[in-house]
Design a protein that fits this description.
alpha/beta, five-stranded mixed beta sheet, 14 helices, disordered N terminus, HTH_MarR-typ
Length: 405
């Protein structure tokens, strides 16, 4: 599935109406309120083409006239903004102990954010997909009750995802060869909209590049937390997928061959050192006295409370975790030279105590002076992967294809 597009280029030759429509939509999204004359002047499309495209987009209720006018000499111009009121896009996310659903409109405004407690790490693929489908049906029903049509749905999975929407392996979930897209389409009775699947890291990176504090950054990495650590990579404005779509699996980079065992079978992987289960286990040694943890939120809140109370053992453990995080980020910085690395999920929650040590470790270990100018920050986005999934679900319309075609 297409997730991030380079800027559409205008042309008036051949069968190019779809491409030109994408140019107009992108300009309105980035520069609204704007006039038809603005669009023509900044995109290179001629005024007649712009007028025709704008009329079509207004008819489809993808953009609308606001009635505002420019302050300029001559006849006032009617201003345009995104509309999209009849539409919604959905994103779903499989987390460490929850399923998440997010719906947005065409402008990226959230219509709903739902969380459902769910122990995905101990559930079977069938159970997880059944719960995902139930959550999706509820979200579809809610936006449908608002008079909105769903344009698309994208699911974020903490594992590898191929081009067909199958998960060949998700070690943290114990999954192998799970046809997520096909199963979800069947559970939703073959809906008219597209059902896509991607990694939580890729989708979080899409959300970060569109909605986060570093929105618009051309070279960006989002490092996910949760049960697995993954890297969503935006390079030169595009999502970097690799030859078969499996790029970004930094969670199984070995940092310490004598370190703790990872769920992948190796030792000292980044996930085994800074992943949520590893952090909870290290900082709260009594946590599994009554059995495996299936709800991490109370334990995470407990760690935060102890850190705020300056508990020496917890502060020491967080600093150690931060040093491992900095070591992993340094590898990304040396390989990719991003402008920013943004950490999400529990890494963002614990950022006040993790990032000082992580930044120090990054500065020490990165080969380029000043870590190549890279900033290491915590994400400001909540449920980034689900938000990115909803954003990715808008891809077809943003590429210039009209809804329902």
């Amino acid at each position: 599935m297409i997730s991030i597009h380079s800027e559409p280029q205008p042309t008036d030759l051949g069968d190019v109406r779809v491409a030109n429509r994408a140019v107009v939509l992108r300009h309105v999204r980035l520069h609204a309120p704007c006039s038809r004359a603005d669009i023509a002047a900044h995109t290179g499309l001629n005024k007649a083409t712009v007028s025709s495209l704008v009329a079509e987009l207004i008819d489809q209720r993808l953009i609308r006239e606001t009635g505002l006018t420019e302050n300029r000499v001559g006849r006032p111009a009617t201003m345009l903004v995104l509309d999209g009121e009849p539409y919604a896009a959905l994103g779903l996310q499989i987390g460490a102990d929850e399923l998440v659903a997010v719906a947005i409109d065409l402008a990226g405004n959230r219509l709903l954010t739902w969380r459902r407690a769910f122990a995905a790490g101990t559930a079977s693929p069938t159970e997880t997909l059944r719960a995902l489908a139930a959550l999706a049906r509820r979200a579809i029903g809610r936006v449908g009750a608002q008079g909105r049509t769903v344009l698309g749905l994208t699911v974020g999975v903490p594992g590898l995802v191929d081009s067909a929407g199958t998960v060949p392996v998700a070690t943290a979930l114990g999954w192998r060869e799970v046809p997520v897209a096909a199963e979800l389409r069947a559970a939703l009775r073959e809906p008219a909209f597209t059902v896509g699947v991607d990694t939580v890291a890729n989708l979080a990176a899409i959300a970060e590049q569109r909605h986060g504090a570093h929105a618009g950054t051309a070279d960006l990495v989002h490092l996910t937390g949760g049960i697995a650590v993954g890297a969503g990579i935006i390079a030169d404005g595009r999502l970097l997928r690799g030859g078969r779509g499996f790029a970004g699996e930094i969670g199984h980079l070995c940092l310490d061959p004598t370190g703790p065992q990872c769920f992948c079978g190796g030792r000292g992987c980044l996930s085994a050192l800074v992943g949520l289960p590893a952090v909870v286990r290290r900082l709260l040694p009594d946590v599994e006295a009554d059995g495996p943890v299936t709800d991490y939120l109370p334990e995470l809140q407990r760690i935060v409370a102890l850190a705020r109370q300056d508990d020496p053992a917890v502060l020491s453990g967080l600093a150690e975790t931060g040093r491992h995080l900095g070591q992993g980020v340094a590898v990304l910085v040396d390989l990719l030279n991003p402008e920013a690395v943004v950490v999400g999920d529990h890494l963002a929650t614990l950022a006040p105590w993790l990032l000082p040590a992580a930044r120090s470790g990054l500065a020490t270990r990165a080969h380029a002076p000043g870590a190549g100018g890279c900033r290491l920050d915590a994400s400001i986005l909540d449920t980034a992967a689900a938000l990115g999934g909803a954003t990715a679900a808008l891809a077809a319309v943003e590429a210039g294809r009209l809804p329902g075609r």
